[in-house]
Write a structure and sequence with these properties.
Elements lengths: L1 E10 L2 E7 L1 H6 L5 E5 L7 E9 L4 E7 L3 H7 L6 E2 L1 E6 L11 E7 L3 H13 L4 E7 L8 H7 L2 E6 L6 E2 L2 H10 L4 E7 L2 H12 L4 E5 L15 E4 L2 E4 H4 L2 E3 L5 H8 L3 H6 L13
Parallel strand pairs: 8-9, 8-12, 9-10, 10-11, 12-13
Antiparallel strand pairs: 1-2, 1-6, 2-5, 3-4, 3-7, 4-5, 13-16, 14-15
Helix pairs in contact: 3-4, 5-6
């Protein structure tokens, strides 16, 4: 059993939880994820690690309530236990000194998993800029935390209620226009957002890494549910990723797989999906 040490609602239906998981925290690296199960009847929920503390043994997860399983998770409170908490899973982000600026792009709750990547890249001696996108200012998350591990943050909102009015790609272009030498972009968030970033940077020749969240069951590569096409090869996001070269990802195929079970879930409101909706 894994105890919930802290719970906070960051924005409507978006929660942060600190979990007591010292063995996971000891091995965790930026870019990796965990798979949890609330109880014996619960489905497996993959979530990217938003922070880890090796000294205290705490793991931070951030998730949005989107269905029965995340609703069940959100109903738990500080002091409650989670049955299973497996990790760290997946390959860590590549961390090192770059010849230029590191830019992390987070869309919605995708901001959370960019935090440990930004921190590690800053510690490696890089200039780090964070682009944070949301529909409105009310659902921006972790802005203060990102300020602590970056040299600059750029906020975009769809409605213009905060920062640049528009999308994260507008912020990327603004950095390019001002002459920022961008060595790498790591984008995490909705698939359509990651696709847009990769499309925008392809002709600019900027290395672009995306963190994929396809349907995932066991997190070990055995089920094949998380397969994605990268270049001419089939990859499994849970063991070969979750990070891939955004310019090689077949986003059309990925989005089609993400939509496979939506009609069934809409028809059966009480249905609890046993193969997961993907990693938040």
């Amino acid at each position: 059993m894994f105890k919930i040490l802290k719970k906070e609602e960051l924005s409507p239906n978006v929660y942060a939880m600190e979990i007591d998981a010292p063995r996971v925290a000891k091995k965790a690296e930026p870019g990796q994820f965990i798979v949890l199960r609330v109880n014996e009847e619960g489905e497996r929920i993959p979530l990217t690690i938003a922070n880890f503390d090796r000294e205290t043994g705490r793991i931070l997860i951030v998730f949005q309530v989107i269905g029965a399983s995340t609703m069940e998770l959100a109903a738990l409170n500080e002091g409650d236990d989670i049955l299973d908490f497996v990790g760290p899973l997946g390959r860590p982000s590549e961390i090192g000194k770059l010849d230029g600026t590191m830019v992390v792009v987070g869309g919605g709750i995708g901001v959370a998993p960019t935090f440990p990547i930004a921190r590690a890249m800053k510690e490696a001696g890089n200039k780090v800029i964070a682009i944070m996108g949301a529909k409105t200012k009310d659902i921006l998350i972790m802005e203060d935390e990102m300020k602590q591990v970056t040299d600059e943050i750029v906020v975009t909102t769809d409605d213009g209620s905060r920062g640049i009015k528009g999308f994260v790609t507008n912020a990327v272009q603004a950095l390019v226009d001002r002459g920022e030498k961008i060595a790498q972009i790591t984008a995490i968030g909705p698939v359509i957002m990651m696709k847009s970033v990769a499309d925008a940077t392809r002709n600019l020749g900027i290395k672009t890494v995306v963190s994929l969240n396809p349907i995932m069951v066991d997190g070990t590569g055995m089920c094949g549910g998380c397969r994605v096409t990268v270049g001419d090869e089939t990859k499994f996001a849970c063991v070969d990723g979750p990070e891939f070269d955004g310019h090689l990802v077949d986003f059309k195929g990925l989005m089609n797989r993400q939509r496979m079970y939506r009609d069934l879930e809409a028809e059966e409101k009480d249905h609890v999906c046993k193969i997961g909706l993907g990693r938040n």
